[in-house]
Amino acid sequence: MAKLCAAGVQLREQIDDDYPDRDRKSDGWIADARHLAKGSSDHIPVDGIVRAIDIDSDLAAHKEEAYALVEKIRKCAKKGDKRIAYIIFDGKIMSPILGWKRRTYKGANPHRSHFHISFTTLGDKDGSYFNLEGEANERLKEDGRELGQDIPSNGTSDLSSSRPRCRCNCQCSSRISLA
Ligand SMILES: [Zn+2]
User: Fold this and answer.
1) Is the pLDDT of residue 63 over 50?
2) How far is the CA of 2 from the centre of ligand 1 (A)?
3) Cα(111) to centroid of ligand 1, in Å?
4) Lowest CB count within 10 Å: 18, 52, 75, 94, which one?
5) What is the mean pLDDT of residues 46-60?
């Protein structure tokens, strides 16, 4: 029985609290068969723990805040929350390399329909609150595009066939674990 690391459960719950009506179609956590075959993804359980989540970038009533939300997570990591290993969104990867600077992501999937967050082993059992406050709803200034405009509603996810739901089938995406 694989389960999501405590930090992943906590961060997803905080995002759910902030965006209760958000789209969850591109959400994911545990790797599907295709990813298992490829063999390198934080979505693959290690010692029964999955250390990654995907969050659909369609925040419904707050679509324009996807960049701001990723920024809050990036700043939280930069300020020293070492449970966050790296973040990928919209062709950019953010990690401790170059002090959490946004760098071009060269992977096959540019991660537009969702953003990916990987966690370190420090997050396995540490589900304490992520400090995402600070500069509320700050928009990226370096990026002049219309924020939130180009999210395809049928966007392809790298985890498209892996959408485990909570057993009550309510789509609440809470503390799911595979039997
Ligand atoms: Zn992912």
Assistant:
1) yes
2) 16
3) 8
4) 18
5) 95
Strand partners, 84: 119
Residue pair 102/146 in contact by the 8 Å Cβ criterion: no
The alpha carbon of 54 and the centre of ligand 1 are apart by a number of angstroms equal to 5
For residue range 150-171, what is the model confidence (pLDDT) as tens digits? 444 444 444 433 444 344 444 4
Q: How many angstroms does the Cα of residue 142 sit away from the middle of ligand 1? A: 25
